[in-house]
């Protein structure tokens, strides 16, 4: 079995009742004779010293906050109460002390003497105290406390002792891609809560790209395409506030000058030849003032919505840059800047992006392939490099003194890699922010080799990435490996093995994810279009009328199937028709994308089975092949009907055909 699939299975398996670390307590506490499980904390705190015995949380808990404490501390106290109240038999509220009963008190205090940003100390004796150097630390102390609640003989209790803790890295992130496959706000909000529970603190939202534009622009309204979902500015402002409450900073990404098909097609004057472009071909003209007016106003809008001091402007994969070599405006810029190569011209573009970001009070982040080490003039060193690919580039950029985010694609692309699910848990746990996968992982790899970033590297931290994957599948693939990334970034240096991590995960964290709203994927209705065995191979000609058809109508759906490499040639296609008996009203998805789609030609495996996934959600339909985006279209209106999978004269063999109803999800 594919180890990644095995891993999915583990996630869905019911959690074990207890972990491996069982021991009896000897302290003279009424509850001490019980055999209990050491709290299975994720991430592992820096120092844990249990002194023996348990503090029972019978009845009422009072959370105490000093009168002069900032409003943020009160807000954290509320989060603590809400979290504690999810435990059976616990009733927590913010002080004052009641006149009757003997409640357990939990005091939250800011104390600058705690060492380091985000540091906290959690002391559990007859009372509980959390002290922290700043409100972030208090929140992380609260999250550790919530993870520490055990149930012993039906009573909630905390293990007595002291935990002192602080993160290894200050940037502990997750990137979500609502562009390729729409992610709704409810999904993002519960993801924020999960991130907070595991002490991740940066949500990087990839908001615009070739395929779609998800940010409501008031300056560039033609980018807001009718019928296509986007986040309004009001929704995003609300999301920023929600995330901040959970200690999460939202950093937006607006990808320019490449990956800009939506913008170029809405405003063709952004193109060197003033014409619309196809996927991966679009690039802004470097020389025309309109390009800079467009970017400036967009960044101004972003700055208005997102208070973060950072903005990510992408700048990766400028595939259309060859056009800059022949465009008179780009050539004029080249002369004016005194440069002679396209790489150098690109560097001047990045330097000007930095100016735009600074003008709006932001620090610029770009993907590492925006900058070519050794090509003068190098862009300013205040730019932060998001290192995702190619150690030959990332290593020298770190050496040169750029601050770095490590988002090494091999271990950290958790939902897609042209690899479908990303790499197994072991590979994710072996990564930390000092290490970069090299050589680049290939499809089918389960083990990675790592290079270490140079000793002088300024590493802020790193982030996992979830590209181009349907919402429910994203969620299923993120966990528990995102928790392993949290472990890597918070507890760097304590490499955990997968078995130990899984033991901790299985000690209650699946239930925690469910409480935070992560749905049970198995609960989604699945229709198998044939047979019952997942690996059974069928040809449409063997089925009725040469089709594999669903038994009922669907509107929003996810269709997964596998085709052998031999059936996925240049001209072969798979058609899917909604509305029975009316093929013109349906839509067709080609197994092989049209030529010229650079990114997708490499998606099909030469041998073995290729995994296809078609997702229709509202008017947006996407096809991914082996986890990479192959095709995306926005129809004028959602389509509904019977889903039909047909082969070419029955020549195709399908297996593992699964149709899921996403309506209302
Ligand atoms: Zn140009």
Summarize the structure.
The chain has 665 residues and is of the alpha/beta class. The protein is 26% helix and 27% strand. It has three domains: 47-165, 2-Layer Sandwich (Chitobiase, domain 2); 171-491, Glycosidases (TIM Barrel, Alpha-Beta Barrel), CATH 3.20.20; 526-661, Sandwich (Jelly Rolls).
What does this protein structure show overall?
This protein has 665 residues and is of the alpha/beta class. The chain has 3 domains: 47-165, Chitobiase, domain 2, CATH 3.30.379.10; 171-491, TIM Barrel (Alpha-Beta Barrel), CATH 3.20.20.80; 526-661, Jelly Rolls, CATH 2.60.120. 26% of the residues lie in helices and 27% in strands. The chain is built from 17 helices and 31 strands. The strands form 6 sheets. Strands 3, 4, 5, 6, 7, 8, 9 and 10 form an 8-stranded mixed β-sheet that branches. The chain has an 8-stranded parallel beta barrel with strand order 11-12-13-14-15-16-17-20, surrounded by 5 helices. Strands 21, 22, 24, 27, 28, 29 and 31 form a 7-stranded antiparallel β-sheet that branches. Helix 4 links the parallel strand 11 (171-176) and strand 12 (202-208). Helix 2 (71-85) runs parallel beside helix 3 and helix 4 packs parallel to helix 5 (233-245). The protein starts with a helix and ends with a strand. The site of zinc ion (ZN) has 8 residues, from helix 8. Zinc ion binds at residues 272, 285-287, 324, 327, 329-330.
């Amino acid at each position: 079995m594919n180890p990644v699939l095995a891993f999915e299975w583990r996630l869905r398996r019911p959690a074990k009742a207890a972990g491996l670390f069982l021991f009896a307590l000897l302290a003279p506490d009424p509850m001490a004779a019980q055999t209990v499980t050491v709290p299975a904390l994720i991430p592992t705190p820096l120092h844990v010293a249990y002194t023996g015995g348990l503090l029972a949380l019978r009845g009422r808990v009072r959370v105490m906050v000093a009168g002069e404490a900032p409003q943020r501390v009160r807000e954290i106290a509320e989060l603590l109460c809400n979290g504690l109240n999810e435990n059976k038999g616990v009733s927590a509220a913010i002080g004052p002390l009641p006149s009757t009963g003997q409640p357990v008190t939990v005091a939250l205090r800011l104390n600058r003497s705690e060492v380091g940003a985000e540091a906290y100390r959690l002391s559990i004796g007859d009372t509980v105290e959390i002290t922290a150097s700043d409100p972030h630390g208090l929140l992380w102390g609260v999250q550790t406390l919530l993870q520490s609640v055990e149930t012993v003989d039906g009573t909630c209790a905390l293990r007595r002792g002291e935990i002192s803790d602080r993160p290894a890295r200050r940037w502990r992130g997750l990137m979500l891609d609502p562009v390729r496959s729409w992610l709704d706000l409810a999904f993002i909000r519960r993801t924020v809560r999960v991130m907070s529970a595991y002490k991740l603190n940066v949500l990087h939202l990839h908001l615009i790209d070739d395929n779609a534009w998800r940010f409501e622009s008031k300056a560039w309204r033609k980018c807001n395409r009718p019928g296509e979902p986007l986040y309004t500015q009001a929704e995003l402002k609300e999301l920023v506030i929600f995330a901040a409450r959970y200690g999460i900073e939202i950093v937006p990404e607006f990808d320019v000058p490449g990956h800009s098909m939506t913008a170029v097609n809405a405003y063709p004057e952004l193109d060197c030849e003033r014409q619309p472009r196809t996927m991966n071909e679009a690039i802004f003209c470097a020389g025309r003032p309109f390009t800079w007016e467009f970017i400036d106003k967009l960044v101004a809008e972003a700055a208005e919505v997102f208070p973060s001091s950072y903005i990510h402007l992408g700048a990766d994969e400028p595939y259309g840059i060859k056009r800059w070599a022949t465009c008179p405006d780009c050539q004029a810029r080249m002369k004016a800047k005194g440069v002679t190569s396209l790489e150098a011209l690109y560097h001047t573009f990045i330097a000007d992006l930095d100016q735009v970001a600074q003008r709006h009070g932001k620090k610029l982040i770009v993907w590492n392939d925006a900058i070519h080490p050794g090509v003068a003039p190098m862009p300013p060193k205040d730019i932060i490099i998001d290192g995702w690919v190619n150690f030959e580039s990332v290593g020298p950029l770190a050496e040169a003194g750029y601050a770095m985010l490590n988002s090494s694609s091999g271990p950290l692309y958790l939902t897609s890699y042209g690899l479908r699910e990303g790499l197994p848990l072991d590979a994710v746990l072996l990564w930390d922010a000092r290490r970069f996968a090299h050589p680049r992982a290939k499809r089918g790899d389960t083990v990675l080799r790592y290079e270490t970033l140079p000793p002088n590297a300024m590493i802020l931290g790193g982030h996992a990435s979830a590209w181009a994957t349907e919402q429910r599948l994203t969620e299923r693939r993120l966990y528990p490996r995102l928790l392993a990334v949290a472990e890597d970034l918070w507890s760097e240096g304590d490499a955990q093995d997968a078995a130990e991590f899984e033991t901790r995960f299985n000690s209650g964290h699946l239930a925690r994810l469910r409480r935070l709203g992560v749905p049970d994927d198995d609960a989604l209705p699945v229709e198998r279009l044939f047979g019952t065995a997942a690996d059974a191979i069928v040809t449409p000609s063997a089925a009725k009328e040469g089709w594999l058809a669903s038994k009922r109508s669907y509107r929003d759906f996810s269709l997964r199937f596998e085709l052998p490499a031999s059936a996925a040639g240049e001209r072969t296609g798979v058609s899917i028709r909604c509305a029975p008996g009316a093929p013109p009203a349906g839509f067709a998805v080609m197994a092989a994308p049209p030529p010229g789609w650079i990114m997708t030609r490499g998606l099909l495996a030469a041998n073995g089975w290729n995994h296809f996934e078609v997702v229709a959600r509202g008017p947006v339909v996407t096809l991914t092949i082996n986890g990479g985006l192959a095709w995306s279209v926005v129809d004028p209106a959602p389509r509904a009907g019977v889903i039909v999978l047909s082969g070419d004269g029955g020549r195709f063999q399908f297996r593992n055909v699964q149709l899921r109803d996403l309506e209302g999800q």
